[in-house]
């Protein structure tokens, strides 16, 4: 296939990054450019330790996952990018996090290289998997010291192709060789579209050219097919679906990582409780909560799995309150929704709602106990064979009954539960459960009949997180209820004959939570 007009090569893109970086900072650069300096900085370095590592624990699990993907797409080339750096401001970027599908299929986590691409090349009996990434530059190159985006002098040591190949137990090649993959793209090639926009665009162009050349038997690079670039591509969606559904059931390695992430999250929650005196003394006490938990996440893992919700007082009625700039006042509740993401990218997702003073008021406890009852009712039905959406329905039975008993509904609980009513959902508009793993909302591109209407299987991990939220200005509830929000969220593993609450070690009942807070000296 002709590619004379393909100027979006890897080398061109890499040069563009370097030029853009230089352009942003040319007016303040002091890097010497003399030949003498280049010779001097490129010499006098000790030999590197080139000892290759043993394959990491997850390498064999990643190989098994790749085999399943290979079986789903015989004869087709598959391209799964890690994604690239994203600009935050001028010459600063957001911390890099590889796409979850790339991490799942390679075993590469927080040490992934930006711009890497996993390629499944079809063979007679399956696929050959190769990871393409930009290898470290020699210390005799200008990149080593003059490129703040990728130079080792600026960002630290980068791995060699041989090192990564041994570490991940997968073939590796330099990123410049990915151009040959693009040259070979045909209309059967699939790409994980959302992972890297630039890679997707290159694949789109290549597929369009291939189709045009097949139809016209000539180089149709100038034909007006570019209107299709970036459009939805249904076969690509099938790839996204398969790699998403592959994560619905967690293997042995993944389950162990989930336990470790939850254990780290437990430590973070306990450290927040211990800091309540400092938290309540600050005008932005919610920020202290966020910071204390983020410190634990960085100590035990890669980062937080999502923006922590540290919602005190009426902020707890805002489902995704992440501004976290309010005070933490004795007498109020704090709703802390947070999770540690490990270096493998597996994340916990836990919520606890605790009284700042160490004691729930009568109304606070009334609401808390209702939410706990809903959570326990949902957990009680979990076992293989149950439909996933039934977990939510079990929690809603309790939420409807309690809000009806309190006189908040215009109809009975039974009537409210009818599909055309759902009045109790005014006080809990979100769902009760979502799958959890590499993404906090994992497997999101799975088909509905595999997710909401899917049958529970041993190895699935998901949340149970009912809540009740009474907005400060909600005139349908008595004044003493207004401004109170409670959520209890646990991470659940489906077992062979039932379920295990992986986060049960974090205090859950009102009595346990009160003792927890008081035990920290409050």
Instruction: Give the oligomeric state.
Output: single chain
The percent of residues in helical segments reads: 25-40%
Indicate the structural class.
alpha+beta
- Which radius of gyration do the C-alpha atoms yield? 27 Å
Cα distance spanning the termini = 72 Å
Low-confidence stretches: 1-19, 220-227
Main beta sheet, described?
Answer: 5 strands, mixed
Question: How does the overall form come out from the CA principal axes?
Answer: globular
Number of strands: 17
Biggest sheet strand order reads 6-5-4-1-7
What is the residue-mean pLDDT, rounded to a whole number?
A: 92
- Count of alpha/pi helices: 17
Strand content: 5-15%
How would you briefly describe this protein structure?
The chain is 37% helix and 13% strand.
């Amino acid at each position: 296939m002709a590619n004379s007009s393909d100027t979006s090569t890897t080398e061109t893109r890499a040069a563009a990054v370097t030029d853009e970086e230089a352009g942003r900072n040319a007016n303040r650069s002091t890097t010497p450019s003399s030949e003498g300096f280049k010779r001097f900085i490129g010499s006098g370095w000790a030999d590197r330790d080139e000892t290759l590592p043993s394959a990491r624990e997850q390498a064999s699990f990643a190989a098994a996952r790749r085999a399943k993907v290979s079986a789903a797409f015989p004869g087709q080339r598959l391209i799964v990018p890690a994604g690239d750096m994203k600009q935050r401001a001028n010459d600063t970027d957001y911390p890099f996090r590889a796409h979850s599908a790339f991490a799942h299929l390679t075993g590469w986590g927080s040490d992934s290289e930006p711009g890497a691409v996993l390629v499944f090349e079809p063979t007679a009996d399956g696929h050959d998997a190769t990871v393409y990434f930009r290898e470290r530059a020699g210390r005799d190159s200008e990149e080593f010291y003059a490129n703040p985006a990728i130079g080792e002098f600026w960002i630290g040591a980068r791995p060699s192709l041989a090192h990564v190949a041994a570490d991940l137990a997968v073939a590796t090649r330099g990123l410049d060789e990915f151009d040959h993959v693009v040259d070979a793209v045909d209309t059967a090639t699939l790409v994980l579209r959302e992972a890297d926009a630039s890679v997707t665009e290159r694949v789109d162009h290549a597929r369009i050219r291939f189709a045009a050349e097949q139809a016209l038997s000539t180089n149709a690079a100038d034909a007006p097919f570019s209107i299709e670039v970036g459009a939805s591509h249904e076969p690509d969606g099938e790839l996204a679906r398969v790699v998403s559904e592959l994560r619905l059931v967690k293997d042995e390695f993944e389950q162990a990582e989930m336990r470790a992430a939850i254990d780290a999250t437990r430590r973070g929650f306990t450290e927040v409780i211990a800091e309540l005196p400092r938290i309540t003394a600050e005008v932005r006490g919610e920020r202290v909560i966020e910071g204390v938990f983020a410190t634990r996440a960085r100590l035990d893992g890669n980062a937080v799995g999502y923006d922590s919700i540290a919602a005190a007082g009426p902020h707890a009625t805002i489902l995704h309150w992440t501004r976290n700039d309010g005070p933490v006042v004795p007498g109020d509740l704090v709703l802390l929704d947070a999770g540690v993401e490990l270096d493998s990218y597996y994340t916990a997702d836990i919520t606890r709602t605790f009284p700042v003073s160490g004691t729930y008021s009568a109304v606070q406890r009334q609401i808390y106990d209702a939410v706990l009852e809903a959570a326990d009712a949902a957990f009680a039905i979990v076992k293989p064979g149950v439909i996933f959406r039934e977990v939510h329905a079990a929690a809603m039975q309790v939420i409807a009954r309690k809000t009806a008993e309190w006189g908040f509904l215009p109809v009975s609980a039974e009537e409210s539960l009818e599909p055309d009513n759902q009045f109790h959902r005014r006080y809990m508009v979100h769902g009760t459960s979502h799958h959890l793993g590499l993404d906090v909302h994992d497997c999101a591109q799975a088909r509905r009949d595999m997710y909401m209407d899917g049958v529970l299987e041993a190895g699935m991990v998901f949340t149970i997180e009912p809540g009740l939220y009474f907005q400060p200005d909600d005139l349908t509830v008595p004044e003493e209820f207004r401004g109170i929000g409670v959520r209890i969220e646990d991470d659940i593993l489906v077992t062979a004959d039932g379920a295990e609450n992986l986060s049960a070690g974090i205090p859950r009942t009102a009595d346990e939570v009160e003792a927890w807070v008081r035990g920290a000296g409050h």
